[in-house]
Amino acid sequence: MPRAIKNALYTMLEQRHCRASIARLKQLESRLPDPRARFAIPACFEGYGHCKWLKPYQHAREIFSLYEHVLELRPRRVLEIGTARGGTLYLWLQAAADDAVIASIDLPGGKFGGGYRACRIPLYRAFARPGQSLHLVRQSSRDTALPDRVAALMGDEPLDFLFIDADHRFEGVATNFRLYAPLVRAGGTIALHDILPSARNDEIEVHRLWALLEKLPTAFAITDSASGRYPLGIGVVKVPDEGFGDLIESLPFVPDTAHDGLPA
């Protein structure tokens, strides 16, 4: 079937497909009640239409190592920058506390995998367990007014976990770090995806920021070269008691206020 016709058909049936996809997700969850086992759900999930896939873009071994870390952290306040297909968002909700507040920012039409269809919003909302609060923010993460909004969504409590996987250009990821790292409490965790240089895409420049962060004594890298795949790498840093000091101010800052965002 031609892609255009398939997309038109999926759009006509998007509400039905979304309901059926949520039902499929709940079936999987009933078979895998343990949070650690639910790591497999985004990878094996197959829904319908525009809600067909959740599989994360990260390498399985790398993201599993980070998932285990977040499970131990059991965060109550979580921010994800870069929702994409929703696979990692699902994981953070499973790892978070029963009363957690989670926000995920994604720019419609974003350059690096952003811009999920609005019909997927009910599916993403179904990720949350009873007692959890999920906020889907569809606008540029580099809007300088957004950190204050995120803080308000969190009830003015600091973040326990921040995951950055959005604009991979140095100026973009550095700006996201400058804007949101100060929201994370001392001892909280910040993780960055794609910290290794890419031979296939020279616009992936997260390694330039990681070269600065990896010097911190609380930083470590998660990489998988044993699987035979080209490792992407996840950088993890626990916020020092004294914060990041002059490092924050030394980073590039390229704000973006051109996107008003869409309600979700």
What does this entry show, briefly?
This protein has 264 residues and is an alpha/beta fold.
Architecture overview:
The chain is an alpha/beta fold and 264 residues long. Helices cover 35% and strands 15% of the residues. It has helices at 3-12, 14-31, 41-44, 60-73, 87-95, 121-125, 146-153, 170-180, 206-213, 246-250; strands at 77-81, 101-105, 133-137, 159-164, 184-193, 219-222, 234-238. A seven-stranded mixed beta sheet has the order 3-2-1-4-5-7-6, sandwiched between helices. It starts with a helix and ends in a 14-residue tail after the last helix. The relative contact order is 0.14.
Which characteristics define this entry?
globular; alpha/beta; 264 residues; 10 helices; 7 strands; disordered C terminus; 7-stranded mixed sheet; single chain
